[in-house]
Amino acid sequence: MNYSLHNLLEIIDNLVWGPPLLLLLVGTGVYFTFRLGAIQFLKLPLALTYLFTKEKNVKDKGDVSSFAALCTALSATIGTGNIVGVATAIKLGGPGALFWMWMAALFGMATKYAECLLAVKYREQDANGNMLGGPMLYLEKGAGQKWLARLFAFFTIGVACFGIGTFPQVNAIVDAGHIAFNIPHEVTAIVLTLLVAAVTIGGIKSIAGMASKIIPTMTVIYVTACVVILFNNASAIPSAMSLIVNSAFTGAAATGGFVGATIMLAIQSGVARGVFSNESGLGSAPMAAASAQTNSCVRQGLISMVGTFLDTIVICSMTGLALVLTGVWSMDIEGARMTTEAFSLGLNQSYGPMVVAIGLMFFAFTTILGWNYYGERCVVYLFGQRAVLAYKIVFLALVLSGAFIKLDMIWLIADIVNGLMAVPNLIGLILLRHVVADETKAYFDSLKQNLSEESTHVNA
User: Fold this and answer.
1) Pair 207, 214: CB distance under 8 Å
2) Are 54 and 337 contacting, i.e. CB atoms less than 8 angstroms apart?
3) Backbone phi, then psi, for 193, in 5-degree steps?
4) Which DSSP category does 329 fall into?
5) CB count in 10 Å sphere of residue 65
6) Residue 196 and residue 366: Cα distance in Å, rounded?
7) Would you call 95 exposed, middle or buried from its count of C-beta atoms within 10 A (0-12, 13-18, 19+)?
8) Which region among 145-159, 272-286, 432-446 has the lowest average model confidence (pLDDT)?
9) FRET label pair with 317: which of 66, 280, 381, 438, CA 20 to 30 Å apart?
């Protein structure tokens, strides 16, 4: 029974993540890259400046600061995708999968900018006075496609409950706790469920506050550990980079695992895991962006696109290089165990596994919190505030049960619901492409005019 169900899920996964969705995902990013004048490259320094600069005279209502909104989005993106997902992608598609993760992320930054811009532009307050925004709002209010808005909200609840939000994160946490500290799966699952319940009761402010503390700290620790591995294997970096690029176009697969991967499999696994990790085009980050206290949808779009850069170009790259440099990508191991082995070889047999375990636990924990919020926003949109309590009870029950589902089944379910969620969002971005372009042009024209006036005033 399990075998036939697994086969059925594989067939559905291949259909969902076939060429049409890959072209839609990457194509949307390519379109916005050219339409917006390579905004993710030319305006990245400005976006980084905004990230660490408080906006003046904020008049529009919001729930949390722009930085806290980004941390909430990052809490949902920086998780198992960066540690386990990269290992899974390279296991399936070989080192070349990392190259396609980079390509998807670079173009995905433009997509993330567009969707978060629209989220702030079309957001509104819910019955409790909290901001409600995201694809369901800009699909309904902007594109006039209420049926697509409802479809997106339905799929998002599915992703929160059965995809990124629960099973992969819980499985990674209990696995890491068992590998590094020999903690029984059942104990970790119970403690995790209680912690999630305690934080989510406080809503977006509680989640954002927790994310603002955990995400920056754990990112620095994890990246520092990866840099040490790279430094210890510095002489092998050129050959590792060559292997990654060459494998992207030859389809080399892990010799100890899935042999004979094609180029298409490298692209498919790289793009799918890339989207799982940075969520560009998925429509999730806009729901966090909509909660930001800001006067400008463009400004928040710029800040939000930094999330994709940090998630994939920085953190996923570090994990991928560690896997390739240490050679564990070709061993007959998978998931968290593969990354743990890389850190054990690259750092220290004692400290390496501990870094991976702690990183997984904290990153995956905040991902669960972030996706609990995303699912809640969609429940409010579809059923109103009265349905939130029932949703939270179901969500916590799924968190508790996530420790007992097999890894391969988890990634298949997560991939399928992720892909289904992305489709209505991407359609909405295409329908509202002119709004994104007009808002962007108006903002930067105004910025130039203000700078010109300030310069004239100084010279006078």
Assistant:
1) no
2) no
3) -60, -40
4) G
5) 18
6) 9
7) buried
8) 272-286
9) 66
